[in-house]
Write a structure and sequence with these properties.
Rossmann fold, two-stranded antiparallel ribbon, 19% strand, globular, binds the ligand Nc1c(NC[C@H](O)[C@H](O)[C@H](O)CO)[nH]c(=O)[nH]c1=O, binds the ligand CC(=O)[C@@H](O)COP(=O)(O)O, 6,7-dimethyl-8-ribityllumazine synthase, 6,7-dimethyl-8-ribityllumazine synthase activity
């Protein structure tokens, strides 16, 4: 389903668990920071609204979305971190650079989650232009940061059932 048919801030209550004792790391790309800070605000507020303690949320930055994978790895390897949320915004330019970054960061984040066996969430926007990004970072299509935070909580809920 395309995002324009679903609000990114809407979610079901499935697998929403008590996360009062869980610790979350949020790694944020500095590129397109007007967008990525909105994504962070959405993710942070969503975690708090769902019972995460402020002291259990840590925030760090990387220069660009390409570096999210390594930043996520450095956080995921910490035994006290239960989930990592990666936030970025890669906007299509004139060249194929967009494709290389998007492919690399999507695969890289997946690899980290599998390597450390914990949720590492892909909260990276890959829009064609700035307006599409703003629409998905607290605009008419909701906030992908909200989605990323809920996804982290739901994955912790799933693994508790197994
Ligand atoms: N153009 C965008 C970038 N480019 C920078 C890369 O992510 C990376 O930091 C650089 O290639 C050095 O390794 N990053 C974004 O997050 N968004 C962009 O639109
Ligand atoms: C995604 C990018 O790296 C992009 O913004 C770079 O722009 P360009 O492809 O025009 O060099």
């Amino acid at each position: 389903m395309a995002t324009n048919l679903k609000n990114l801030s809407d979610h079901s209550e499935k697998n929403i668990i008590n996360v009062a004792n869980n610790k979350f790391a949020i790694i944020v790309s500095e590129w397109n920071d007007e967008v990525t800070e909105s994504l962070f605000n959405g993710a942070y507020e969503t975690l708090i609204e769902n019972g995460v303690k402020k002291e259990n949320i840590i925030k760090h930055y990387v220069p660009g979305s390409y570096e999210l994978s390594l930043g996520a790895q450095w956080l995921a390897q910490k035994s006290d971190i239960d989930a990592v949320i990666c936030l970025g915004c890669v906007i299509q330019g004139e060249t194929k650079h967009f494709d290389f970054i998007c492919d690399a960061v999507a695969q890289g984040i997946t690899n980290v989650s599998l390597k450390y066996n914990k949720p590492v969430i892909f909260g990276v926007l890959t829009p064609n232009n700035q307006q599409q990004a703003l629409d998905r970072a607290g605009g008419k299509h909701g906030n992908k940061g909200d989605e990323a935070a809920i996804t982290a909580i739901k994955m912790l809920g799933l693994v508790q059932q197994l």
